[in-house]
């Protein structure tokens, strides 16, 4: 057991009020880990006040339910803040986390920044939800799981691991997933929520397959302009999903989506097989995991420069390695 887990449990016991945060533009792991952890704590310590305080929302994950109404600022002063699944302070969805008396970070991203009083970071974990499951496993005799909490946690484990496909998935991941699954999760409904798409999204997917570019050494990329977003009536969240449409192209070991924002920023989503792309993301105001990172650029020229660097990285990888697909 990681020594920080005991510190975190002791801190939770010490406080009457706990406020839970995640990163903005939430994914299944951000929502699953925060809602799962909050529900686990509510079940286990019904006398404590536990709040989820975040400033944005995900339509795609709306089936998991909402969060709490905003608290007045003065409510933060005597609270323990817990941030799950956010590697950096800048990405925390609600910047009022600074008002909390003490702060805990629980995360599985590559640790680029320390921002809390107590930090439990395990980058080898396939999801933050896996860490929440491990936390429950370590303190089972004191904590109370429920089907609701398990559904949130399992959702994050399933989504962040690419349905238990990514290399971070270990025997421990599967043992913990089994522990959580045994709480009686309705997987039919969960997977229907995760897989069903409307017709417009499928049309957008086929558009991406027609229009994506492949660089000389195989980097697949798609630039989603404001015009395309308007044409397909895409939210920023819908538009950014296109990165996953390029994930199974032979020889394209790196694939990148550029999504033009309304504020002049271009969001970059980088994914890869075998090749580490987090260092490239870090050069462009980003970071993340070895094979899944995010970044931000401010012009088409900068997007092109990033793409050229990705192409050079893939060239070097292919020259030095064998057995890739
Ligand atoms: P995304 O493509 O935005 O889903 O990001 C992929 C992974 O990289 C996620 O795990 C993010 O948490 C992480 N990530 C995205 N943007 C950043 C950033 N600016 N700094 C650090 N990590 C990031």
Major sheet, described briefly? 6 strands, mixed
Runs with pLDDT <50, length 5+? Answer: none
Q: What is the rounded distance between the termini? A: 37 Å
Number of helices: 11
- Measured by DSSP, the beta-strand proportion falls in 15-25%
- What is the average of the pLDDT values? 97
* Percent helix: 25-40%
Number of strands: 11
From N to C, what is the helix and strand string? HEHEEEEHHHHHEEHHEEHEEH
Q: Tell me, briefly, the overall form.
A: globular
Tell me which ligands are bound: adenosine monophosphate
Return Rg in Å. Answer: 20 Å
Strand order of the largest sheet: 6-7-8-9-11-10
Class by alpha and beta content: alpha/beta
How would you explain this protein's 3D organization?
This protein has 325 residues and is α/β, with parallel strands linked by helices. The strands form 2 sheets. A 6-stranded mixed sheet has the order 6-7-8-9-11-10. Strands 2-1-3-4-5 form a 5-stranded parallel sheet, covered by helices on one side. The two termini are 37 Å apart. Helices cover 38% and strands 16% of the residues. It is built from 11 helices and 11 strands. The mean pLDDT is 97. The protein is globular, with a radius of gyration of 20 Å. It binds adenosine monophosphate.
